[in-house]
Design goal:
By secondary structure, the protein is α/β, with parallel strands linked by helices. α8 links the parallel β8 and β9. The radius of gyration is 20 Å and the shape is globular. The N and C termini lie far apart (42 Å). The structure holds glutamic acid. The site of glutamic acid (GLU) has 7 residues, from loops. It comes from Cohnella terricola.
Amino acid sequence: MTRRGRFAPTPSGLLHIGNVFAATAAWLQMRQAGGEFALRIEDIDKPRSRPEYVERIIEDLIWLGLDWDEGPRRGGSHEPYVQSLREPLYEEAFERLGETGFLYPCYCSRSDLASIGSAPHGLASEGAAYPGFCRTLSPEEREARAKRKEPAIRFIMPERVIEFLDGWAGPQAFDADTLGDFVVKRADGMFSYQLAVTVDDAAMGITDVLRGADLLDSTPRQLGLYEALNLEAPVFSHIPLLVDDTGMRLSKRDKSLTLASLQAEGIPPERLLGFLACFAGWIERAEPVTLSELIPLFRPVYPEGGILRVDASLRKWLWEK
Ligand code: GLU
């Protein structure tokens, strides 16, 4: 069976070093395995997404030397490759979940949810586990609440430990009470990331999902959806998050680390690739490399805690073009 991977950026900003690391690793994983690689634009959150970022992301990936077998500007057998055009698929899965008893309406307000507190650890993509307040409402209680508020719709997570073997992070186990029932459709009608990404990865035949460790706790939730929808789950791999010498996350907010600003500084793609291959440990010394040179050298790296330190001297090297 041909392995299939993907990069699935959200066009809510410019690509930065963290996204480039994820895109490059996902691409290298497939090229090393002789697999196929898809690009999918995750613009389901319409207010946060902008068309100009879609174009910029595509241009940035091309500048880096990445190619894709399917996706925007290329087409393929799983079109469209833009989530905002795939809503009928999410609707269909949503209806199936409803018919099989996996959903319930949730009338909790923002302040009800705030009272649950915050997520238990730093790497959380969904916030605190929802304790199921609305799960056991009687039909009468639901009716009374429905008069006041449009509900969000939650997915009922199985009440057991969810285990999986992560391709990079190793064996994982998540307790039911750290996950909770999560939203698949918001009160404003928008389908959630969790539902859309699961439906799309399954529909596109993705066998290998590789993404940032900030989404590690999304994986047990997505596995819940795969199971409920009777779909085969891919192998998940989560790559470490990048931090600087002081332990601060290299983030979107650091404008100097966007691809756009590196390009504006005249830094060639081979130098950027050498920089990330060096902190990933794929090459020993910082030196410019091409993507194809990295194909045989690529391997998983996952330090304790899912944090990878990018030291200041390496950062300095990047700017010494
Ligand atoms: N669209 C998500 C993001 O940009 C990534 C989703 C995924 O790879 O599963 O954060």
